[in-house]
Amino acid sequence: MIAILGAGESGVGAALLAQAKGMEVFVSDKAEIKPVYQQKLQAANIPFESGSHDYDRILSASEIIKSPGIPDKADLIQQAKAKNIPVISEIEFAARYTQAKFICITGTNGKTTTTLLTYHLLKSAGLNVGLAGNIGESLAEKVIKDEFDYYVVELSSFQLDGMYQFKAHIAILLNITPDHLDRYEYSMAKYAQSKLRIAQNITSSDYFVYNLDDALINEYFQPETFQGQAIPFAINQEANAKAYYKGTQLQTNYAGAEEQIDTSTSVLIGKHNQYNTAAAVLAARLIGISPEEITAALGNFKNADHRLQTVGEANGVRYINDSKATNVEAVWYALDGITQSIVWIAGGVDKGNDYTTLKNLAQEKIKALICLGVDNKKLVESFAGIIPVIKETQSVEEAITMAKEIAAPGDVVLLSPACASFDLFNNYEHRGQRFAEAVQQIALSPVQQER
Length: 451
Description:
Elements: E1 2-5, H1 9-20, E2 25-29, H2 35-43, E3 48-50, H3 55-58, E4 63-66, H4 75-82, E5 87-88, H5 90-95, E6 101-106, H6 111-124, E7 129-133, H7 139-145, E8 150-154, H8 157-161, E9 170-173, H9 188-196, E10 207-211, H10 215-220, E11 229-233, E12 243-246, E13 249-252, E14 259-262, H11 271-287, H12 291-298, E15 309-314, E16 317-321, H13 328-337, E17 342-346, H14 359-365, E18 366-372, H15 377-383, E19 389-393, H16 396-406, E20 412-415, H17 428-443, H18 446-450
Parallel strand pairs: 1-2, 1-4, 2-3, 4-5, 6-8, 6-9, 7-8, 9-10, 10-11, 16-20, 17-18, 17-20, 18-19
Antiparallel strand pairs: 12-13, 13-14, 15-16
Helix pairs in contact: 1-7, 6-11, 6-12, 16-17
């Protein structure tokens, strides 16, 4: 019997795949299972429990497939390991039942953008490719029909922790910065090793594409012991870089021949997106997609919502929704990538932010700060005397009205909060949606523009 812990997207997908392969399956979730997933399990006649764990039944399983959200230190997982019951991730399980090639992406930041862009480049070139993983789609459920030659898979460190025999054909590691350290005994070394599991089991016919500019990758990756083909990339030319930029041209030299790939058509802005673009472009080239096809596809890529997403333009002012930027580092990338003068909308629930790294960019680029939050004291104190105009509000509509009055033709109004959203909104998506709606109603409304 296969026991599945967690009945979200990955758990239900794994249950359906296990059933399709003729296995006895039991699904258990300590929380209440969402109705949509209960319905899927009921339709398939898969037994499940919601709101509790039947330890005896689960610990009689021959194998356990665990949701990424359940930590290894959980009592049930510890008991399973004490009984030598294998505990794996949905990705590890799904990979057993397909011969497709995997292009896998991980990193602390930029995973989703790079995953979506890689998928877009492959699909635009006509390849038979599926999208799965941490992006929100179950690989296991897709593998039931197994219709694809390639899968582009976003992987979190939590998913990687439950993967053992899995092998990527192209593994991409974008960066490593402190995150989720509570799951890794507050050890950067353990977190870094988790991220580097993306390159495990790779052979000489596979590739590891990684960011040579990232200090922690360089510290923990050991090329001399690596069996695959390493393709390090960087922004500027370095001795070991197999790919780097000259302006908007990505220079590559990983197969003995130099090549230039034009990235000027990319709609992505900022230095961090240069890294994301380089990784995705290299994956596409390694699969065999031509530079011309890549350049054409870069120009019509649409990123996920709430990530430096242009939501409107009126009277020469561009409005950008970067609601996903819930930490200082993400805001730094946004400010660094925008060349125009900025009206910055920020604020929310502070997560212990230190705004020091933003101050030079703020002095150089930001003409006004509109604090959108219940408690804006730290933001106001951090940028007083640096940003000439600072205003406060708890209304997104008022924030847009203020921004519209301040912004001049050629400026950018940027929502990039640096904070969590839970003081005024349900989550960052809700905040971004409300921002986009307010832009449409106030900034882009013909009636408003005529005034």
